[in-house]
Design a protein that fits this description.
Length: 341
C-alpha cells in the first residue's frame, strides 16, 4: 500500500463513494450537517467490555475496580442503545475501558449498528486478532480500527503492555491488512497509535517505519494522559517521573509550571464540548471518556430514553449531557499523525 501525502479531499470522497455504499456515505454527511445545527452528540462511545486481557503500565482503568456490575454489555442492551440514538447520531465507538474483542457478541453488535447506517470504530490492543476474529472483522463492515502499539520492539512493547506479545501483534496486523486488501475492501481503515513516553521515545522513527512496512492507513503519536480523578498519588508520581516526556516537538496535554509541576495546557471549559458521551456496560451514561470510574452519571439508558423528541415535561439524557460543559478538569486528546495512505 502506497502512502500519498498529497491526496486531495476530492479523491478521498470519490474513493469512499466508489465502495458501493452511497446511502451510508450520504447519511453520514447529512448527520454531520444536522449535528452542527443542534445540540446533540456528534458520536457516542459504547463500552462493550470493561475488562482487558492486558495490564498496561500506563493504564489506570486496569489498576482499580471500575465498579461495573456487568463486565460485558449484553447484545440486547446494545441493540436498545442503537435503536434509541439512531435519530440523532450515526457514529459510534465500541471501546472504552476494556478490550472489545473479549465480548462474544462484538461482531453481532458491529453488524447490527452498521446495518442501521452507523459508522462504527474500534480501539483494540490487537492481540486477539486471530484468523477467526480477522474474518469476522472484515465481514462485519467495521469502518475504523485503531490498534494501540506503545513500542516498536519486543522489549519496549512488552515492558509497557504487560501480557502482550509484540511478535503476535505484528503478525496479526500484517495479516489483517493483507486479507483486507486481498478481498479488495476499503474498510476497516486501520490505524496504529503510540502513546509517547520516556520508555519508547527512542523508537518513534522505528514505529513510523514499521507502520509503513505493515501497510496500515495511518500512524499516530499520542500524548500521555495522567488521570488524577482518584488521587492515586503513587500512580501519578510514577507517570510524571518515569513516563512523561517534556518536549515541545512532541504532542502533549501538559506544561510544566513555575513550581516544576505538570498542569493542563487548557482547563476550565470542556475540551470536547460534551459531544462524545460514553455509555458503560451497565447502561450508565457518562459525559465523556475521562470519567473512567463513572463518577458523573447522567442517566441510565437501560431504563431511560437517551433522546426524547416533542414530548413536553420530559428531560432526556441528551439534555443532561448538554448541561455538563463547565468547570471541566479533563485533558483534551492530543495526537500527531505521522503517516497516511
Amino acid at each position: 500500500m502506497k502512502y500519498n501525502f498529497h491526496k486531495s479531499k476530492f479523491y478521498q470522497t470519490l474513493a469512499r463513494v466508489s465502495e458501493g455504499n452511497f446511502a451510508r456515505y450520504l447519511s453520514f454527511h447529512l448527520h454531520q450537517l444536522f449535528q452542527k445545527l443542534n445540540k446533540y452528540p456528534n458520536d457516542i462511545v459504547i463500552e462493550t467490555a470493561s475488562v482487558c486481557n492486558l495490564n498496561c503500565t500506563i493504564c489506570h482503568s486496569v489498576k482499580a475496580e471500575l465498579g461495573r456490575k456487568n463486565r460485558f454489555m449484553s447484545l440486547a442492551l446494545f441493540k436498545k442503545i442503537i435503536d434509541d440514538i439512531t435519530p440523532i447520531c450515526n457514529t459510534i465507538g465500541v471501546s472504552f475501558c476494556g478490550e472489545p474483542l473479549l465480548n462474544k457478541d462484538i461482531f453481532k453488535m458491529i453488524r447490527y449498528a452498521s446495518g442501521k447506517g452507523m459508522c462504527v470504530s474500534m480501539l483494540t490492543n490487537g492481540i486477539l486478532l486471530n484468523a477467526d476474529a480477522r474474518m469476522s472483522i472484515l465481514d462485519s463492515r467495521l469502518n475504523f480500527m485503531a490498534i494501540s502499539m506503545d513500542g516498536a520492539s519486543n522489549h519496549t512493547y512488552e515492558s509497557i503492555r504487560i501480557g502482550g506479545s509484540f511478535d503476535t501483534l505484528v503478525e496479526n496486523i500484517r495479516l489483517l491488512v493483507k486479507e483486507r486488501n486481498q478481498r479488495e475492501l476499503h474498510n476497516p481503515s486501520i490505524d496504529l497509535q503510540m502513546v509517547v513516553t520516556q520508555k519508547n521515545i527512542h523508537e518513534v522513527d522505528i514505529f513510523e517505519k514499521l507502520a509503513r512496512e505493515l501497510g496500515v492507513d495511518r500512524a499516530y503519536l499520542k500524548s500521555l494522559h495522567i488521570d488524577r480523578s482518584r488521587e492515586d498519588v503513587a500512580y501519578v508520581k510514577s507517570l510524571e517521573k518515569d513516563y512523561f516526556v517534556n518536549s515541545t516537538s512532541l504532542p502533549s496535554r501538559y506544561i510544566t509550571n513555575e513550581q516544576g509541576n505538570l498542569e493542563l495546557k487548557d482547563k476550565g471549559l470542556c475540551p470536547q464540548k460534551v459531544r462524545t458521551p460514553v455509555i458503560t456496560t451497565d447502561g450508565e451514561v457518562l459525559p465523556c471518556c475521562f470519567d473512567i470510574f463513572g463518577e458523573h452519571v447522567l442517566g441510565n439508558i437501560a431504563n431511560q430514553r437517551f433522546w426524547i423528541s416533542g414530548i413536553q415535561g420530559n428531560t432526556s439524557i441528551s439534555d443532561a449531557i448538554w448541561l455538563c460543559t463547565e468547570n471541566c478538569l479533563c485533558a483534551p486528546i492530543v495526537s500527531h499523525q505521522i503517516t497516511k495512505r
